[in-house]
Amino acid sequence: MAMATTHRFPQFKYVDAVRWLPLQSPFHRFAVLALFDSDTDSSSIQIHSFNPNPLSFDSQFSWPSPSRISSLRTSHFLQKPLIVASTSSGSLHFLFADPSHAELLSEASLPDAALHSLPASSVDLMDAAVECVTVGEDGRVNLVNVGESNLSYRRIFDSGGLVSYTAVRWASPMEFATGGYGFSLQWWDQRKPGGPVSQFKGDWDKKLTSGIVHSIDIHPSRKHTCLAGGSLGTVFAWDLRWQQQPIILSGAGAGNAAVQSISESEVWEVQYDCCIKSNTSSTRILPSMICSEDGILGVIEQGEEPVELLAEPCAINSFDIDRHNPSDVICSLEWEAVAILTRQ
């Protein structure tokens, strides 16, 4: 693994989430931060410009959030960058930015409790941002259609609280995956309404039945494989073609297998790492990056020793790989800082 240059930028607030903001200009790099100020009990979304030479990370725009951000995503909509955020009070906000500058053009919102009786655990934007899916611990699954000036939504499932959902990820314009308690995963197809079309229960190890899936990723070239990270440092893949057993990549579920665990705490986020060119066959899981409660940002590749990119004294609760420059990774150090890594 090549070396990485790391720059840390203090924020003096809790950094709840970070995302790169996709912009049209190759000369401008911007990041989106979800911040919480415990002194004033106030939350905000800020856009920062990043310049590696000379090094700078400056706030360009700030939007006050009505409550703390629970999930943050970025995408494109009609050639404009789009930020979507759910809050702890249950509201959902879409912020449309200028395509060449870090300025807010317009905003559309759904009020508290319109979608969820509890905070939305996770939201995900479809590429091109035509539709957004939201899930919550209240057991509701909603689809939100994004228009230029309005939002419309419909509830496609409600478990009545019997099942809770903690993570969601689009797989195709018609399919998405959700995760929840007991390391459970569900596969949904809008062409087959009424509930998930396939389910996976994480009962391969009885001690893991209380585990939670915190994050899901699905690679566009292999939508049949769902990557998940959660409690006890667990990272695993669920292949829809062979559904009975998970493919353990790290964590407590590894047992005595030849799998080295990179973390023993909550894995807050997983993403496929497109910076690593894997020469493995289609039966191997593609390399992935994780961040964890015990301060680890690392890379996991099936059959290889895991690599630590960062080991911090505080939680790393989110990260994002720049899709246009995958050697650049931004991550949130919960104790009031942002780190940007450039892999050589």
TrEMBL record:
According to the record, the segments passing through the membrane are: none
Instruction: Please give the superkingdom of this protein's source.
Output: Eukaryota
Q: Does the keyword Repeat apply?
A: yes
**Any one of the GO CC terms:** nuclear pore outer ring
Key words, A-Z: Nucleus, Repeat, WD repeat
Q: Which InterPro entries match?
A: WD40/YVTN_repeat-like_dom_sf, WD40_repeat_dom_sf
Cellular location(s) = Nucleus
The record's SUPFAM superfamilies line, in alphabetical order, gives: WD40 repeat-like
Q: What Gene3D superfamilies does the record tag this protein with?
A: YVTN repeat-like/Quinoprotein amine dehydrogenase (2.130.10.10)
Q: What is this protein called?
A: Nucleoporin Nup43
Q: Which organism is it from?
A: Cajanus cajan
Lineage at the top is:
Eukaryota, Viridiplantae, Streptophyta, Embryophyta, Tracheophyta
